[in-house]
C-alpha cells in the first residue's frame, strides 16, 4: 500500500495571537513564533503508520513549505514516514487554497500511483479546510472529510467513519482516495531519540516548480483566484461594565445579578 | 427539453438532510436578499434532493425569486461527487455571479470540491459578506491569529464562492411567496457516487448540549491545567448549564473536541455566557450568538474579551470561581 501524507508547518498554536499585523505590508509578523507541524497532520501520519504496520508498503510525506522548515518537517520522518518531498519555490508564494492544491496534486502525480492520501482536516493557521477536497478533485479521486475512523479489511475496501453535525456516517470507498482526519481518530505517537536519529538518515527531496508538471496559470499569488483586499484590526472599545472589589466582592455582585435575572435554580 | 433559464445572479445552496433544511441555508437567504436588493439582483435558492417539493414550497415563502431544484433518487443522500456534478452542470448553464454555502460538514466539503471543478475562488468560514455595486463579492474572514479580519475577493473568475458560518445572520421571517420553482437536471448514476453509504447515525440533542443550552460556561487556556478544569464544570453544574471550551483546552485534552465553541467549533445561542480565562479572539467570539448576558472572568484587565462582554470580572479564576459558586449556593437554598 502506498500512502501519501500531506503536512504543513504552522505557527505554534500555543502562541496564537502573538503575531502582529504589519500595517504597511498587511502581513502578519510571525518572527518570534516558533513553527510546528500542524497538529491534525500528525494524526493523519499516525493513521498512515498504523495502516503500514498492518499492510506494509510505503509512506511518502509531502509538504509545500520553505526549505528552512526542513529540520522541523523531519519530525514526520522520525515518526516513521519513509521519505519526504518538500515543495519549495518563490513562485509558490502567495498561493491560495486552489493554487496550493494544484501544486500538491502535481507533486502527487510525480510520485506515482497511490492508494490513500491523508491530510489533517484543517490547519491551525488559515483553517480553510479546503485543500484536501481540492487535491482530491484535481486528482479526480473520491474524498471524505471529517474522518474519525478508517477500517480496512482487505486492501480493496476502506470503511470510513465521517463526522456530520449530529452524528456520523459510515461509508465504503475503493482506493485511490483522499481522506482528511479529525483529532478523534487516534493519538499520535511520541518520537524517541533513536527515531530522530533514524529520521536524519531518510531521504528528503526538495522540488521546485521546474521539477513538476504544473498548470502554470494556477500557482502562486498571480494564479490564485482569491485575493486579499485588505486586513483590518477591529476597533477596541470597552463595552463591559467592570465589577468592583476583590475576587469575593466581584463574585458576590455577579451572583446577585444572576439571581435577579433568574439564572439560579433551587 | 431545455431548462428554464434562471434569472438569479446570486445563488444560495440550501442544504437538506432527510427533507429538513439546515438553518444556515435559510439565514443565508435572508442576507442574500438584502445584498441583492441594493444592486437589483435576484436571489435563487438551490435545492438538491429527492422528493423535496414540500421543502421547495417552504423555501419559496422566504421571499426568494427562484427555488432551483434538482430532484432525483440519486440525490436523496449527500454524495459529494454526485452533488458536484449536478451543481457544475447547472452553474455552467445558468452562470450565476455568486454562489454561497453554509460552512457545515457538507458545505465545507462540497464548496471546495465544486470550486476546484469550476476553477474558481472560494472564501472559507466567512463571518460577513459585502456586495459592491459592480457585483463584486467581498467576504470577511477572521485572519490568522484571530485578532484581525481580512476581506477577500475573487476578481477574475466566476462564480464568486463563499462558505459562511452558521448563526452569523438572522433567520428571515417567512412572508409572501413571490417567486417560482424551476427544475434543473439532477441526473446522476451510481458511478458518480464516489463512496457507498453504509449507515448514517444521528444523535438526539440532549439537554445540556451546547447548541440548546440556556447557560454556557466556557473555559479557556487561562484555566492553566487539567486539574483546574473542574472549576468550569462545577460552575456549569451550579447553573445547570453546559460546558464549552476554546481551542487550547481541546488541544491540551482538558476538554473534548465537540465542546469547542467558535469558528471551527460549535455556534451557540445561550441566554447566559460566562467565559473564563479566555482572551477573546474573533475565532472564538464568532461562535456566540444572541446571548442576553455575556460575562468574562480574566486576570488581565486589558483582555480583548472585555470589549465584547456585558460584565467583566478581573482576577484569578481560581479565586473568583469558587467564591462565585459559594455565593450562588446562598441563592439556591
Ligand atoms: C482558523 C482558526 C480557527 C479557530 N477556531 C477556533 C474556535 O472555533 N474556537 C476557539 O476557541 N478558538 C479557535 N481558534 C483559536 C483562536 O484563534 C485562539 O487561539 C483561541 O480562541 C484562544 O483561546 P483562549 O482565549 O482560551 O487562550 P489565550 O488566548 O491563551 O487566552 C488565555 C487568557 O486567560 C487569561 N488567564 C490566564 N490565567 C488566568 C487565570 N489564572 N485567571 C483568569 N484568567 C487567566 C489570560 O489573561 C488570557 O487572556 C481558531 C484559530 C484559527 C486560526
Topology readout:
The complex is a heterodimer of chains A (266) and B (333).
Chain A: E1 2-6, E2 9-11, E3 20-22, E4 27-29, E5 35-37, H1 39-55, E6 58-64, H2 70-79, E7 83-87, H3 97-111, E8 116-120, H4 131-139, E9 143-152, E10 158-164, E11 167-173, E12 177-181, H5 193-201, E13 203-207, E14 227-232, E15 241-242, H6 247-260
Parallel strand pairs in A: 1-6, 1-8, 6-7, 7-13, 8-12, 9-12
Antiparallel strand pairs in A: 2-5, 3-4, 9-10, 10-11
Helix pairs in contact in A: 2-5, 3-4
Chain B: E1 10-13, E2 16-17, E3 20-21, H1 23-39, E4 43-49, H2 53-60, E5 66-71, H3 80-94, E6 98-102, H4 107-118, E7 122-126, E8 128-131, E9 137-142, E10 149-153, E11 160-164, E12 180-183, E13 196-202, E14 215-219, H5 230-238, E15 242-245, H6 247-252, E16 272-276, H7 282-285, E17 293-298, E18 311-314, H8 317-331
Parallel strand pairs in B: 1-4, 1-6, 4-5, 5-12, 6-11, 7-11, 14-15, 14-16, 16-17, 17-18
Antiparallel strand pairs in B: 2-3, 8-9, 9-10
Helix pairs in contact in B: 3-4, 5-8
Flavin-adenine dinucleotide (FAD) sits between chains B (144, 146, 220-222, 224, 246-248, 260-265, 277-279, 281, 283-284, 287, 297-300, 303, 316-318) and A (16-17, 124-125, 127).
Written overview of the protein:
The complex is a heterodimer of chains A (266) and B (333). By secondary structure, chain A is of the alpha/beta class. In chain A, 28% of the residues lie in helices and 29% in strands. In chain A, the strands form three sheets. Chain A has a nine-stranded mixed beta sheet with strand order 11-10-9-12-8-1-6-7-13, with helices on both faces. Chain A has a two-stranded antiparallel ribbon with strand order 2-5. Chain A is globular. The model of chain A has no long low-confidence stretch (mean pLDDT 91). With 333 residues, chain B is an alpha/beta fold. Chain B has two domains: 10-192, Rossmann fold; 215-328, Rossmann fold (3-Layer(aba) Sandwich). Chain B is built from eight helices and 18 strands. In chain B, the strands form four sheets. Chain B has a seven-stranded parallel beta sheet, with helices on both faces. A five-stranded parallel beta sheet of chain B has the order 15-14-16-17-18. Chain B starts with 9 loop residues before the first strand and ends with a helix. The model of chain B has no long low-confidence stretch (mean pLDDT 93). At the A-B interface, helix 3, helix 4, strand 9, strand 10 and strand 11 of A face helix 3, helix 4, strand 7, strand 10 and strand 13 of B. Strand 15 of chain A pairs parallel with strand 18 (311-314) of chain B. Flavin-adenine dinucleotide (FAD) sits between chains B (144, 146, 220-222, 224, 246-248, 260-265, 277-279, 281, 283-284, 287, 297-300, 303, 316-318) and A (16-17, 124-125, 127).
